[in-house]
Amino acid sequence: MGMSSKPLVITKKIIILLTAVFFSHVLVGQVKIMAGLVLDSTTHLPLQNVTICAQNSSHCVLSGLDGRFKISLEEKSHAIVFSATGYHSVVFNIKDTSQQEMLVLLANSYAQLEEVTVKGKKRKYRNKNNPAVELIREVIANKAKNGPGASAYSSFKQYEKTRILMDKPPRFLTKSWPLKKFGYFFDNIDSLTVPGKKLSAVYMQEVYSANYFRKQPEKKKEIVLGKKSVDYGEFVDMHGIHAALNRMYEDINIYDNNIDAFTLQFMSPIADAAPLFYMYFIKDSIEENGVKLIQLDFLPRNPTDLLFQGTLYITLDGNYAVRKLEMSVNKNSNLNWVRKIKVSQDFQKGPGDRYHLFSSDVVAFFSPFARSNGLFGERQKRITSLSEQELSDSIFQGLSSDTVRAAASQPGPFWQEVRPTPLTATELAVYSNADSLNKMRSYHRLMDWATFLAIGYKSLGIFDIGQIGNFYSFNPVEGNRVRFGGRTNTKMSNRVFLESYLAYGFKDQQWKYLVSGAWSLNHKSIYTYPFNYLQASYLHDTKNPGQEDIFAQGNAFFTSLARGYNANLLYNDIFRLSYVREFGSHLSYDLGLKYWRQQPSDSLHYLYPSILGKLDTAQQLTVTELSVALRWAPHEQFFQNKIGRRNIANKYPIFSLAYAKGMKGWAGGSFNYDAFHLDVFKRVYLSPFGFADLDFSAGYLGGNLPFPLLFIHPANQSFFYSYYAYNLMNTEEFVSDHYAGLNLDHYFGGFFFNKIPLLKKLRLREVVAAKLLFGGLRDQNNPSKNPLQMQFPVVNGALATYELNGQPYVEASVGIYNIFSVIRVDLVKRFTYLNHQNISSLGLRFSTNFTF
Fold first, then answer.
1. What is residue 588's predicted lDDT score, i.e. its pLDDT?
2. Cα-based distances in Å from 387 to 31, 133, 213, 223, 350
3. What is residue 849's predicted lDDT score, i.e. its pLDDT?
4. b/e map 281-320, b = 16+ CB within 10 Å
5. Nearest-5° angle of CA 83, CA 89, CA 93?
6. In this structure, what are the phi and psi dihedrals at residue 665, rounded to the nearest 5 degrees?
7. Mean pLDDT across the stretch 390-404?
8. Residues 6+ apart with CB under 8 A from 224
9. pTM of the entire structure?
10. What residue ranges in 489-586 does DSSP mark as E strands?
């Protein structure tokens, strides 16, 4: 038995092998396996998400990130159709062979940035009994298990590339005599990003990072492993540019109800309430690797709202997940400087048998006017090494975003390894062109003068002269006033910083001055992030009562153009010693010591009642105080220049808390007091109804104090709208020792104007604002109840300063902004305390507006 079984086994194996070979030939005769590569016909770069279908069949697949595909076809299929958004479709005839390696080139259709137009049937659209709406409701119901935060843990590597390209640079930049030597910079032409346009690449940044997520408790961590970007030198705030681009090109998560992009908020097409604002249409179905996909087109019910339109590919494997999306914004949407947006995202099946974001491409066009040239911005993201393994708690310690020391100096081989595709010659030239500019003395001279004209500071070696806006001003007390000053820069020292100015008033014939010195503890300029310096200063100058910051660097000439009575100035002598420290988490503190002696001008008198019933004049008031101020601005983003910072508002709040202690008898101080101040700022998005800026402030002042040392609420008597002051309140009109205030500005983003046929073409936007102030005085600080307290000032026989006597101060405004893309006009109405003398109850105010 043992000897005869072996030949039998061999015989069985031969029979099985012959049978397999026979049936494989039969099956091959019935099925064709087609594989190949799809490339862009111009760039020869691989194209992903190309739809590949057998002609006259519903069997389709999508090409991968590397452009490769494989599709099995029945014997009766004689052609394959290749199609992709922005490309001409191609029909490829199948040869009579069982297997082929194909190379397919797709040509651009020159419509990448054009808005998607989806047309449904002309019958009235309804949600009820609509299979497209039923499908999208399934997608909404399954968001929790498909979104990025579905797993308990996740980690991945991400490569990100951001580019800015200029569309037809102005002639004065390329042909004018002073700038013609920089013409080579604009000769770096990109003709691939937007077919039909020759764009000059001017900005480039690459970031490679490791990212970690934990669901309970929720925590995110990003570690930047490599960072490479252009640098245009000291005159351009590259940190601010990076922050602005990060704010505009925020991560787009289709599973969020609201999507933040370009400083605006859009409702997602799969938001919980999306069926109330979107229309959906099932266009087609395809099969990819055994999974059926539904092509679902969507568009806004109202094309002027901040909503997307485009196409979703939804899986029918029980997950109802998004496999792919292509979406843009309707041309009728009022986006201000953002003219066009296109978003493309691809999701691949990964850990947990779920679809994870694999790639994201966002392209936008910016221009101040509808038909003017502008800038194209592009951000690409590619995700690799995705894992859902459990992560150690130690990974999430420290800052939510951190950078390794070697990130900015990673060598060429590092970038060659992590880049999904090599950089083009145009992209490489952006880096080299920036380096060349920084080596040109003529470039530094040009940027120096440009900074002087734009910001008001002119560099003269180790000194910066300015600020030009303060060189001349006028007011009723000083008459015509001239001022000249400047400060040192890092060319003199990166540790010691000096600042000074000298001013003279021709009417009061007095000199004013400032002397300041700072010691940087982190070897960086004291005007750049993050702060860490010790500063001492002495100021002898005038100020308006209630002016928030006596060292403010505003434009004095424009504030000279004021309404009403504006002669109650103070002469101040202020010595200040402070230590300012700022951390990477945007938490900062300011420890201070201040000596302040103030004297009223001739038109303002400090009057105390005497024992004999007469009024005694106080020549001056003196205080000495210690203070501490804390500020926390999580995820803060801002521009920074030689004037200071300009915040880029986002969804995160900003908290400020300050305490000051007045010390009587110390260094000449005459008063004891405790002063507390709290401020909270928050931007609230209310898609699709725009957003609101809320600013809550409150303060308490303990002590027996005369009115010049109380809270003097900030008033604005100029004709320019102020976001922080009360625009129809007179200077020094209201004082308090305890108060709470709320400022509200709501920007509708054209929600109403876009629905009016004639107005929507002007792209105007609506804004409403309200300012409320509650407060009061304790009896000891109220001269009407304390006969020993300093009297409120009188102007032209009428009382000029008041308490808030139980009734709030209220003013509100309605305005239009985006006039010529930059101008805002507000009609402001005052509603309370209308019986006060010399007030305005209604006024027109102007301002510039640069919000998107």
1. 95
2. 36, 33, 10, 16, 8
3. 67
4. bbeeebbbeeeebbbbbbbbeebbbbbbbbbbbbbeeebb
5. 100
6. 80, 0
7. 88
8. 207, 208, 209, 401, 402, 403, 404, 407
9. 0.75
10. 496-505, 510-520, 532-543, 570-582
Please choose, from the candidates 60, 101, 102, the residue with its C-alpha nearest in 3D space to the C-alpha of residue 77: 60
In 3-state terms, what secondary structure has residue 474?
A: strand
Bigger pLDDT: 356 vs 615: 356
**What contacts 9, CB < 8 A, 6 or more positions away?**
none
Q: How far, rounded to the nearest angstrom, does the alpha carbon of residue 770 sit from its chain's CA centroid? A: 24
Give the CA angle between residues 340, 341, 346 to the nearest 5°.
155
Q: Between β-strands 99-106 and 31-40, what pairing exists: parallel, antiparallel or unpaired?
A: parallel
Average pLDDT, the chain: 84
* Per-residue model confidence (pLDDT) at position 77: 65
* Residue that the structure tokens 């008041």 belong to: 802
pLDDT tens readout for residues 283-340: 888 888 888 999 999 999 988 788 899 999 999 988 899 999 999 987 777 776 787 8
Position of tokens 């300050």?
A: 658
* Residue whose token pair is 């005839």: 93
Question: Scanning the structure block, which residue is given the tokens 């605006």?
Answer: 264
Residues 6 or more apart whose CB falls under 8 angstroms from that of 55 comprise 77, 78, 79, 80, 81, 91
State the pairing for strand pair 472-475/765-776.
unpaired
CB neighbours of 544 closer than 8 A, spacing ≥ 6? 566, 568, 569, 570, 731, 732
pLDDT digits over 355-381, tens only? 999 999 998 888 876 677 788 888 999
CB 623 within 8 A of CB 596: yes
Two structure tokens written together for 795: 């102007």
Does residue 569 carry a pLDDT above 70? Answer: yes
In terms of Cα–Cα distance, which of 62, 59, 85, 58 is closest to 310?
85
Burial class (CB in 10 A: 0-12, 13-18, 19+), 708: buried
Residue 498 sits at the vertex; the CA angle it makes with 493 and 502, to the nearest 5 degrees, is 150
Give the pLDDT score at 114: 43
Compute the C-alpha angle 253/258/263, nearest 5°.
90
Higher pLDDT, 496 or 456: 496
Q: Which residues pair with 519 in a beta bridge?
A: 496, 534
Tell me how far apart the alpha carbons of residues 381 and 592 are, in angstroms, rounded to a whole number: 45
**Averaged over 186-190, what is the pLDDT?**
78
Sign of the CA dihedral with 74 first, then 77, 82, and 85 last: negative
Nearest to 335 by CA among 232, 277, 230, 262: 262
